[in-house]
Write a structure and sequence with these properties.
The chain has eight helices and no strands. Helices cover 80% and strands 0% of the residues. Helix 1 crosses helix 7. It is globular, with a radius of gyration of 18 Å.
């Protein structure tokens, strides 16, 4: 792969991680948070999203295809990146390494989550409050999902910082520091929303 093609693929990978994948993750967490209002509220929100016009087109071209590219190219980046936290244990080096670790973990988590929900729906199961409550009634599965949510929120929040830097939007050290605090806030807010939603099913 030439340096030029790798450069543009990394730019595309970064862009898709925010739009549309990142936006979908945030929206998905917000929809799940309706579970804190009870089964009827969650089921109504879930049904609304599932009955949108052109839902199959939206799922494939707005979610699945961008997600698969971001995931598979991200795995390539993760296994070809040179992590040097042992030699240079700076904050950004740790964030760089954690971004790769959470990315690989999320490939596993998302594949399992899709199998437990979307694949089961295709086989005739109802994706509703009761399904998620049954899945999360297993303490190990609950821990796995909490880890998945935290990995996703960190990966997205830190990805916002990486996106703004790689696209040349935040170039000065001051602007990068400000975005670091903003990304921390995104991580905390989305993590609370996501974990509250999971605990509402228990």
């Amino acid at each position: 792969m030439s340096r030029e093609s790798d450069f543009y693929l990394r730019r595309l990978h970064s862009l898709l991680g925010i739009i549309p994948v990142g936006l979908f993750v945030a929206q998905h967490l917000v929809i799940n948070h309706f579970a804190t209002r009870g089964p009827e509220a969650f089921n109504a929100a879930s049904d609304f999203m599932g009955n949108l016009p052109f839902v199959l087109f939206l799922e494939w071209f707005i979610i699945y295809i961008p997600l698969m590219f971001h995931a598979f190219y991200g795995v390539y980046i993760a296994f070809t990146a040179k992590n040097n936290v042992q030699r240079y244990g700076t904050f950004r080096n740790w964030m760089f390494m954690l971004q790769r670790i959470t990315g690989v973990f999320l490939v596993i988590f998302i594949a399992w989550h899709i199998f437990q929900t979307r694949v089961q729906k295709a086989l005739g199961a109802d994706v509703d409050f009761d399904m998620m409550a049954d899945i999360l009634s297993n303490p190990l599965m609950l821990a796995f999902y909490i880890a998945g949510v935290l990995a996703a929120t960190f990966h997205l929040a830190n990805g916002v910082w990486s996106f703004l830097v790689s696209w040349g939007i935040t170039q000065s050290p001051r602007s990068q520091t400000i975005v670091t605090y903003i990304s921390m806030a995104i991580f905390l807010i989305l993590s609370v929303i996501g974990v509250q939603a999971l605990l509402a099913f228990v």
